[in-house]
Structure formats: structure tokens, C-alpha cells
Specification:
The complex is a heterodimer of chains A (about 300) and B (about 130). Chain A has about 300 residues and is an alpha/beta fold. Chain A is built from 8 helices and 12 strands. Chain A has a single domain, classed as Metallo-dependent phosphatases (Purple Acid Phosphatase, chain A, domain 2). In chain A, helix 7 packs parallel to helix 8. Chain B is mainly β and about 130 residues long. Classes of the chains: A alpha/beta (about 300), B mainly beta (about 130). The interface between A and B is medium-sized, with 22 and 20 residues.
Chain lengths: ~300, ~130
């Protein structure tokens, strides 16, 4: 009998897919020996910061990068349960008609993903100039929650306010939403900007993010996945883990490593370097998450 | 009757939209007798501040008089723990007492469009 579960498989093939980062209270120990035939975990994919519509030297292949990433996701050994897009689906524009055109175009490419369910949320490039109006028309709500296989997922919008705020109304909703959840249920938060002060001088923060963390802290199992900073990054605030995802347009420098947050230059010898998407292998029973990073193009 | 105390009080509030970061070591509210104060005008427009570099001396008190031209930009000095929202067409003032030398970034923290990420400048506080 083959008792290899998905996590075993991913760990074995991680060398071909990228780094593995385990997050959670109980870690991954013991899962392989359980021998359960039934699904004990599931996985989803996080894609972030597509910036569809961007034109510039930092990614001369901008028109084909997203399509290549879609192909790579579709080539995964098993389709994910769902895919979450953590913001900046489009690159900003002042023109409302062009904004909608970019959103529809991106949505059309994304529709090629072989997955049962897609979840969307905005980044500041999508939503800050019109307070989320176009995003709501084309992708739907900017904040919401859902449950999936024993995990409570919450999407927090910290970009529709151009000041990078969640706002009192949404914070109140968050508190109420979590209040209805069993305290034992693991909570996963999706957001665009970091909820903590990563590098405020680069605008890598949420102005009232501390309020959100204060609401989340009483819950024992909380993990945050976000975008915005165009690179993999891991941070803890108390017992809450925060994991930033790579971009699908251009990478940004390490937090605070230089005076300006200018994009890392495109390297023709290594196209798509620093870009990618991730799988998150979730085990609700232990509130643990195995994170597997993948490049845009898998070789 | 000595009107000075009233004048002092009025001076602290009259007509100025002033942000003072309570508890922040390098910013505190001024007393009237501390008169050596420089006013530095800054223009904010998409996607730059003019000037983008300000030089001051440690111990100096400066008032930044910031005028936004085209958007409700923000003016944030996160390392000094203070920020203001700008109002297009109006001058918004921020009074700082600089007690610490260093390079401090100021930036727009209200997303203002394609180029927002580059809208910043540097306040250089030199040792006096």
C-alpha cells in the first residue's frame, strides 16, 4: 500500500520546485507515519502581484509571464483545491476604462487555470485610485471570509483606502466574523500589504495593521499570507506567522536593504529570476502549512 | 495684564495644521522662547516632492510647509513617527524639532498612481 501523502511527495520533489518552508504549531512530524488513506491535508496556490498592464524594462516579457505561470500551475502533479490571488492583479492606470480592460484581460488569462475555485482580492494598484469600484465590478467583494476543510479563511482589504488602511468598519466586521468561529479552528488571513510594520519608509506597512493583529492575537492558530513586497519573506508577530509571496512581474529588494525600493533589474541571462508562485500544503488538524516555492517556468 | 501666555497658546494652534508626535524623542512641541525656526517650503505633486532633499542641523527647529498640487498626497516621516494628509491647493505645516542626526526618508503614503512608489525624499539632519 502506498502511504505516501502529498506532503511526502512534495518534500521529495522540492529540489525541482524550490524552497520548502514549514509553518505551524505542530509542524509536519508524524504525518508520513499515520498511514491514513483519507485526505488529511489539502493544498492551495497563492499567486500575487501580477501587475497585468505593466510595461517597462523591469520585465520586458510582461505580456507572456502570466501565461507561463498559468501553464506551470496547470502542470502541477495535482490540481490545487483553490487559488488565491493576493492583489495587484493589474498595474495601476488613471484611466477607468483602461483599468477595467486590464482587469478583464487578466481575468481571461487566469480563466485558463485548471482549478475548481479562484479567490481574488485587490492590491493598491487595482483599487486605491477608485476605492475598489472597478475591482468589485469585475472580481467581486474586496473583503470576505470562507471556510474550507476545517480552516477559516479571511480576506482583509488594506488597499481600497488609498492610505493603506483597513478602516474601522472592516475591523469591526473582522472582529464579528472571527467571533462566530470556533476558537479551535485554524485561521488563515489573506491580505495584500503586510499587517505589521515591515519597512514603513518603503510604504511596506498597513496604517492600522496593529489593530488587525490585536484582533487576531487571541486566536491560537493564525497564519497570514500576503503580497505587495514581491519576494518571499517570513516574519512572526507573537504567535502569528506572516508569509509574503513572490511576484509575477518583477522582484523588489530585500526589506530595507537600500535607500529606495527600486525593482531589481531584469537579467536577460536569467529571465523571471525572483518571480514565482507558491503552493501551501495545509493540515487543518495541526494548523500547519508547508510552503513550497515554484519559479514561473519549471524545468 | 500680560497677554503673552495667551499669545503663546494661540501661536501653538492658530491657523496651522500641526502634527506633533507624542512620545517621539526627536519631535516635541515648541515653547515660544524657542524662536530660531526655519520654514521650508515643499511642493508635492505626482510623483515627486520638490525639494527631494532637505538638509538641517541637529538641534534645529524647522517647519515644513507642504503644498500639494494635484492629489491628496500623504507626507510621512515614519522614522520620526509622524505623518500628515495634504490638501490640494493648501499649505499644511509640520513643525519638527530635530534632536537626532541621520537620514530620514519622507514619502507619500497615500497611493497616488503609477509612480507613487518613487515619490519620496530625504531629510538629512547633520551634527551641529
Amino acid at each position: 500500500m502506498n502511504t505516501m501523502n502529498r506532503r511526502d511527495f512534495l518534500n521529495l520533489m522540492a529540489a525541482g520546485g524550490g524552497a520548502v518552508f514549514a509553518s505551524g504549531l505542530a509542524g509536519c512530524a508524524g504525518m508520513a507515519s499515520s498511514g491514513k488513506a483519507a485526505r488529511e491535508d489539502f493544498y492551495f496556490v497563492q499567486m500575487s502581484d501580477l501587475h497585468w498592464g505593466y510595461k517597462g524594462p523591469d520585465n520586458p516579457d510582461a505580456l507572456i509571464t502570466l501565461g507561463k505561470a498559468v501553464d506551470s500551475v496547470n502542470a502541477l502533479d495535482m490540481p490545487p483545491e483553490f487559488i488565491i490571488f493576493t492583489g495587484d492583479i493589474t498595474h495601476t492606470t488613471d484611466d477607468p476604462a483602461e483599468r477595467r480592460r486590464r482587469m478583464r484581460e487578466a481575468r481571461g488569462i487566469i480563466a485558463g487555470l485548471k482549478v475548481r475555485k479562484l479567490y481574488f482580492m485587490p492590491g493598491e494598484h487595482d483599487a486605491s485610485l477608485d476605492r475598489g469600484a472597478a475591482f468589485k465590478e469585475i472580481f467581486g467583494a474586496t473583503h470576505y471570509s470562507f471556510e474550507y476543510d476545517g480552516i477559516h479563511f479571511v480576506v482583509v482589504d488594506n488597499v481600497s483606502d488609498p492610505g493603506g488602511k483597513i478602516g474601522d468598519e472592516q475591523l469591526s466586521w473582522l472582529k464579528d466574523d472571527l467571533g462566530k468561529v470556533s476558537p479551535a479552528l485554524p485561521i488563515v488571513v489573506f491580505t495584500h500589504r503586510p499587517l505589521f510594520d515591515l519597512v514603513p519608509k518603503w510604504d511596506w506597512a498597513t496604517r492600522d495593521g496593529a489593530e488587525a493583529i490585536k484582533i487576531l492575537l487571541p486566536y491560537p492558530n493564525v497564519t497570514v499570507f500576503y503580497g505587495h513586497i514581491h519576494q518571499e519573506h517570513h516574519h512572526m508577530t507573537g504567535h502569528i506567522a506572516h508569509h509574503a509571496a513572490k511576484s509575477l512581474i518583477f522582484p523588489l529588494p530585500a526589506p530595507g536593504s537600500q535607500e529606495k525600493r527600486t525593482p531589481l533589474p531584469w537579467d536577460p541571462a536569467a529571465p523571471y529570476r525572483g518571480l514565482g508562485f507558491r503552493e501551501v500544503d495545509a493540515t487543518p488538524s495541526t494548523a500547519s502549512y508547508g510552503i513550497h516555492e515554484f519559479p514561473v517556468v519549471r524545468t | 495684564m500680560n497677554a503673552l501666555p495667551r499669545r503663546q497658546a494661540l501661536r501653538q494652534i492658530a491657523g496651522w495644521m500641526m502634527i506633533v508626535g507624542a512620545g517621539v524623542p526627536c519631535i516635541r512641541q515648541l515653547h515660544a522662547e524657542e524662536t530660531a525656526e526655519r520654514v521650508i517650503e515643499i511642493e508635492a505633486r505626482r510623483f515627486q516632492y520638490t525639494p527631494s532633499q532637505i538638509v538641517a542641523r541637529r538641534g534645529e527647529t524647522v517647519t515644513l510647509a507642504v503644498r500639494a498640487i494635484d492629489f491628496t498626497h500623504g507626507f510621512s516621516l515614519p522614522e520620526l513617527g509622524t505623518r500628515i494628509d495634504l490638501i490640494p491647493g493648501r499649505v499644511v505645516k509640520l513643525r519638527l524639532q530635530l534632536t537626532r542626526a541621520g537620514r530620514f526618508t519622507y514619502l507619500c503614503d497615500n497611493f497616488c498612481g503609477d509612480g507613487h512608489e518613487g515619490m519620496n525624499g530625504t531629510l538629512i539632519v547633520e551634527e551641529s
